[in-house]
Amino acid sequence: MSGRHQTEGLEDLTLLGNQNVSYTFAYAPEVLESVDNLHVGRDYFVKFNCPEFTSLCPITQQPDFATMYISYIPDKKIVESKSLKLYLFSFRNHGDFHEDCVNIIMNDLIKLLDPRYIEVWGKFTPRGGISIDPWCNYGRPGTKYEEIANYRLMNHDLYPEKIDNR
Question: Which residues carry out catalysis (predicted)?
Fold first, then answer.
């Protein structure tokens, strides 16, 4: 196969190419859209880096800023990137702890995609002199991806950061 045909697996998209999309300022998992993975016979990673992720502290309502890293091995579906951008933007006025944000993102993507493997890492900027960098992952139960998830969980942070490499 040399590439995706103009409409192959794209029939249900509503956001890509739509110039009238409005940004929602409330948590909106319903904006997520997927397309068919044309390479289901191959394991490969899809990685997204969102260096402008923002959410709110649920107690103080102060803004929290992070780089959100999302990596996954797709199965039958891949996430459409514009919908992912709009979804991540919907956290802007959403109040949740850092740990909750990464787990919510992962759960929503699992629900949408049913990936073979996924991990989400939020690298939040320090506030009050401390940074919180939650990391979570999932591998499809009963498969080699579950074993990968367990291995990655036990070894994900073997090289702790220094103050100058954030």
Answer: 57 (thioimide intermediate), 64 (proton donor)
Residues assigned a catalytic role: 57, 64
Q: What are 129's two structure tokens? A: 């002199």
Question: Binding site: residue ranges?
Answer: 79-81, 98-99
Residue type, 70: I
pLDDT, greater one: 134 or 164: 134
HEC string of 65-113?
Answer: EEEEEEEEECCCEEECHHHHHHHHHCCCCCECCHHHHHHHHHHHHHHHH
d(CA 31, CA 36): 17
Q: What tokens does 119 get?
A: 């991990």
Residues that constitute the known binding site for substrate = 79-81, 98-99
